[in-house]
Specification:
It contains 13 helices and eight strands. The longest helix is centred in the middle third of the chain and has 20 residues. The chain is about 50% helix and about 10% strand.
Length: about 375
């Protein structure tokens, strides 16, 4: 059994105001600051940026205006900007895409190679510049993971640069930075946490330790969503903890059909990754429970009662049904899918997602995909 997590964490309301102190502790003299354009109008972020600039008058600032998940060509352009300025460390402030971009830039700063040559799981690469991450959305877990997602435009596929050297040196997590984000983005990110927790929990590669993180992350996230108090920064601390737990579990186990479906739908229809996963999550769980008799999801249920595991699993589905209605999570219909083309989607998804399908705790194949997709059309 192996378990790893390599990023120092600092979590708290107002903690981002001390980013400059964390940079100093890392020994960084000239930071490059990469931030998400969505934060430009956030008054709290302006205070954060002002503090960093006051501590480092020579800091180099880049606003990431790229919409959607970054491509390898965009990564090349941003790395070129920072190479011309020669910072000795980086700060990535924003959502998962901007943080992934920061990981890619940090690695390219010390490896003079084309970005595409690093796709997949590169070996024999130099250590990247030290990276400090500050998430403005809480769910992807990008702030503490080594995975960095990039889109290969030529192939039309999400790939990535996945080296364990990508781990950020430190993550500063402050829920106040997320307060200006649209609520639909907050919810989509939280649903991404649930996907990470469920897929890792059921993964055929799970370990007893990874399951501890899967369960804790799922329960913190679903309770925060059920309580419906996400307009309070303090309530979002549970989303932050759920995000960290979910991605830690996923890194130490593996994904499943839901995460795979999310990648497919996200690329094909430019659906935010968290929302794409949410669309499929409940029906994949329903298939496993009802069609295959998988009852271990009972351990994810935050409500503990002296009933059978099967009853607790069904009760969890009822909770998710209610939550989906409240959050207005869509089906596949708004994205052009119906009974007439659901078989085609199942076929294409099963061919491109065989690895993710294989991670399911029970057999999951093209016929399984049809059952799930049929329930969503």
């Amino acid at each position: 059994m192996n378990f790893f997590l390599s990023t120092d964490l600092c979590i708290g309301v107002n903690e981002a105001l001390s980013v400059h102190e964390h940079l100093q502790a890392l020994g960084i003299k000239k930071p490059g600051i990469l931030y998400d354009v969505s934060l430009a109008g956030n008054l709290y972020f302006q205070d954060v940026l002002r503090n960093i600039s006051a501590g480092f008058a020579n800091s180099v600032i880049y606003c990431n205006e790229f919409r959607g998940e970054p491509t390898y060509s965009h990564l090349e352009n941003v790395a070129g900007f920072f190479r011309s300025e020669s910072p000795d460390g980086l700060v990535a402030i924003g959502g998962g895409s901007t943080i992934d971009l920061g990981k890619g830039v940090a690695l390219l700063m010390t490896n003079e190679v084309p970005a595409l040559s690093l796709k997949g799981f590169p070996k024999d690469v130099n250590d990247p510049l030290p990276l400090l991450t500050v998430p403005s959305l809480l769910g992807s877990g990008a702030e503490v993971s080594f995975n960095a997602v990039f889109i290969d435009e030529a192939e039309g596929r999400k790939l990535g640069i996945n080296s364990r050297k990508n781990f950020p040196k430190k993550a500063v997590i402050d829920p106040k930075l997320s307060m200006s984000a649209p609520m639909e983005s907050v919810i989509a990110s939280a649903m991404d946490s649930l996907v990470h927790c469920v897929d890792s929990f059921g993964s055929v590669k799970h370990t007893p330790i990874s399951r501890i993180f899967s369960i804790e992350g799922f329960q913190r996230t679903i309770i925060a969503l059920q309580q419906d108090q996400l307009d309070r920064a303090e309530s979002r601390l549970d989303l932050a903890l759920g995000s960290i737990c979910g991605i830690t579990a996923l890194m130490n186990s593996g994904d499943g059909p839901t995460n795979g479906f999310a990648y497919y739908l996200g690329v094909k229809h430019q659906v935010p990754h968290g929302l794409a996963g949410a669309i499929f999550l409940k029906e994949v769980m329903r298939y496993n429970i009802i069609n295959k008799g998988y009852d271990k999801y009972a351990l994810l249920n935050p409500v503990r009662r002296e009933v059978s595991a099967r009853e607790l699993s069904f009760e969890l589905l009822d909770q998710l049904d209610e939550l989906y209605r409240h959050l207005a999570i869509p089906t596949l219909v708004p994205y052009g899918y119906g009974k007439g083309n659901m078989a085609e989607l199942a076929e294409k998804a099963s061919k491109s997602l065989s690895g993710s399908f294989a991670g399911n705790p029970v057999e999951f194949n093209e016929d399984s995909a049809r059952v799930v997709i049929d329930a969503l059309t």
